[in-house]
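Our preliminary data section would be incomplete without showing what the modeling component actually yields. Below, a chain of 184 amino acids is followed by its predicted structure, encoded as tokens that our downstream tools consume directly.
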Amino acid sequence: MINIALEYVKLSLDQYLINYFDLNSSTVALNSLVDVNGVPLQQNQNKVVITLINLEWETNKKSFGGQKREQDQYNQINPSLYFNLDVLISANFDDYAEALKFLTATISFFQGKPTISRTNSPDLPDGLSALKFEIENSSYAKAFELWSALGAKYQPSIIYKIRQVTVQSGDIKKTAPLIRVAGT
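Predicted structure:
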């Protein structure tokens, strides 16, 4: 679900920016900032880049296993896991003014849609009920540490936390027959 959630965010933001700036092509990438050798990725050039920088297990939301009815039996499944995703959204443009323009438009997208749900996005993929976005504030020192850890040169950017992305394998733990009462 993590990849599906981030891909959906990428596609939604991309469509918004295409419409906002009247563009002819995609301008958003879901990618790391550098390759394994620390070299900036060429495919990120002149794009808004979404990068997963942290995955946090949501321990406040406890879930119990569930049951799924299939034909004449119930299947018991493990509880879902909930994660918060920290994503860095950076404007990787040759022209600094252009980077700031795209970063501002990106912030406008999330400000206008702080929650993506079936109500405002009926095409939300199955398995996702909602994506809730919060800005993560970072001090100068934390930002410096992050960009150093990523091995990339600083670009205009913002960090968003995407709350409670659900992961459910659907593996069946136990199967029980459906009990029927006579006459029903």
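The first strand starts at residue 28 and ends at 30. The mean pLDDT is 87. Preliminary results of this kind motivate Aim 1 of the renewal.
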